[in-house]
Amino acid sequence: MTDPKLRNFSIRVITWNVAGTSPTENLRNLLGVRKPFDKNSLPDLYAVGYQEVSMRPRNVLSEMLLEQEWITPLRQILAELDYVKLISYRLQGLVLAIFVRRMHLHHIRNIYSTCVRTGVLGSWGNKGASIVSLRAYGASMSFTNSHLAAHDHGYKRRLGDYAAIATTAWCGPNGCYILDHDYVFWFGDLNFRLDERITIDDLRKAIKDEAVMEMLQYDQLHRAQRDEDAFETMTEGKISFKPTFKYQTGTTDFRLKTRRPAWTDRILYRCNEDTYQGNKFDITAHEYRSHEDYVQSDHKPVSALFTVKVFSNDTVFDRVYFFNTSDWSISRGFELWFCTPTNAQPQNLDWIGLMQENFTTLDKYLAYIWVDTRPMDTISFPDDENPILPTPRHVYRQTFSDQMVVLPGTYQLVYFRSKCDVLGVSDPFKILDCAHLQ
């Protein structure tokens, strides 16, 4: 690959240990979309990681049928701004969700999720990491939401958790470990505390003297990086915010009676800039802050904003084009047409989902069919002169089963490869005068 042009792609990462609570506070400020705001400043992708999400049986049972309660308000807010939830992944109390602007859907590929458990005996998921790997405009990215071992005396266990996650999380279709991606984002309640020689009395005095930031020199994560024991190849933005733990819930006051304050909640990043010959990937950190006004947890959420370089001439050679999509009715049946370039044919297990218009998540399809990989034996078909369609091309025609049941309304078709790689989206169309597809 010789010197292709690069474009900017912006990413906002958010981490919050919600301490088993349910969402009660407005998340707009955390997302950076409190009105008024400039739509042009919105990030291209959000990665949101929660820790200590409730594991009460009532919550777990409801999530078997409904969306996770901390994901729903994110999706509802971002839907107003034309974002789509790509994927959400849960490992017990660890929840990770990725949202992208709708216009990027065709350019996000190889979406893959996995986890590493580092809890009791290395097999319990109360500690560990939930991980999503993907490619955006040809650049590979990993997002690791982790909750490492707790307590002041748990420093060595935290180092062990880091090593286990970094060396065992294999990211499937992207063919690498998490630190080998072009861009790496690692965040969560990393639980690194202050060196044990710093007492609560030392911290009380520092807080009283408004000198708590001086305690950063005793931060265990910085020590681990200096000693090359953990995160030594990763970068963190400048910390200019107070410790993020431990607070009295409902306040911005530290809970000094039981725990020493510390910067437990962190966001780190890495760019493997020499991955492609003739290209230099790059990452710029614009913002790194905590959100002290959120008070329902004993942790404060932390966010960071980045701009990365991706390929501007990323050609999606396997894109699928729907055409001649008109309103459906009982009398006409439910026939659909799509085409692909001749060098990118459908694969086994490709499928087409029927979604509501302006869908806000990829996992809420109303009906689906498996794709028939045999092209039509024809050179003439509806919309043959459409200049948007690829040339040369293969043409496919399929019919939805008459067993599918939907209500009248406006819908779209989405062509999927694997679980959630989107290869094509149809224009909106209506299903009229019936509740059954025939």
From TrEMBL:
Domain Inositol polyphosphate-related phosphatase: 7-314
Gene3D superfamilies noted in UniProt: 2.60.40.2840, Endonuclease/exonuclease/phosphatase
GO MF term set: phosphatidylinositol-4,5-bisphosphate 5-phosphatase activity
Record organism: Varroa destructor
Family listed: Belongs to the inositol 1,4,5-trisphosphate 5-phosphatase type II family.
Domain of life: Eukaryota
UniProt GO BP: phosphatidylinositol dephosphorylation
Official protein name in the record: Inositol polyphosphate-related phosphatase domain-containing protein
GO annotation, cellular component aspect: cytoplasm; plasma membrane; ruffle
